[in-house]
User: Which sequence fits this backbone?
């Protein structure tokens, strides 16, 4: 497939394919390797916790819940990230990711892995219940209390918090494990 998936079956297939690739990589590591920081300073466990947190934010988005709270973030931290001010991205995005990394770092490995599996299963069940029309609905349909109006299809957030995100972390993990 070239480009983003156009249909729900293509989307689910790509999510499953890239998830399997991520977990094939992570699943080959022993507990000590999962805890060892890589060149980016994050251990594979922290990468897994980070991906899980963003999947939780996606579940919350689709359920009309506060995304930051679903990730365990304060409203202040999340609201700074979600301000829509692109010029603030590195600082606010880094603050969100630093908070997520710190939270994952102190969690036991077994808990991170269990949360990852359960969150992913919850997300797949939710996506499975959605129609193509649901995927094409605007972000603001799902987050009406989050101004300003955002007419972009929610599918973009689904892509960015699933298969595209998995691909980013696969690349970082492969580079870190080689180094």
Assistant:
């Amino acid at each position: 497939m070239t480009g983003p998936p156009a249909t729900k079956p293509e989307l689910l297939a790509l999510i499953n394919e890239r998830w399997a690739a991520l977990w094939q990589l992570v699943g080959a590591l022993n507990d000590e390797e999962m805890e060892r920081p890589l060149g980016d300073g994050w251990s594979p466990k922290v990468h897994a916790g980070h991906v899980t947190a963003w999947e939780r934010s996606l579940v919350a988005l689709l359920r009309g819940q506060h995304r930051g709270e679903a990730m365990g973030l304060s409203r202040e931290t999340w609201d700074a990230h979600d301000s829509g001010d692109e010029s603030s991205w590195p600082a606010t995005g880094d603050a969100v990711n630093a908070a997520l990394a710190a939270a994952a770092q102190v969690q036991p490995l077994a808990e991170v892995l269990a949360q990852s599996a359960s969150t992913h299963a919850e997300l797949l069940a939710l996506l499975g219940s959605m129609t193509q029309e649901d995927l094409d609905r605007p972000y603001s349909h799902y987050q009406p209390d989050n101004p300003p109006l955002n007419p972009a299809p929610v599918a973009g957030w689904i892509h960015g918090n699933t298969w595209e995100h998995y691909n980013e972390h696969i690349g970082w993990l492969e580079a870190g494990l080689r180094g």
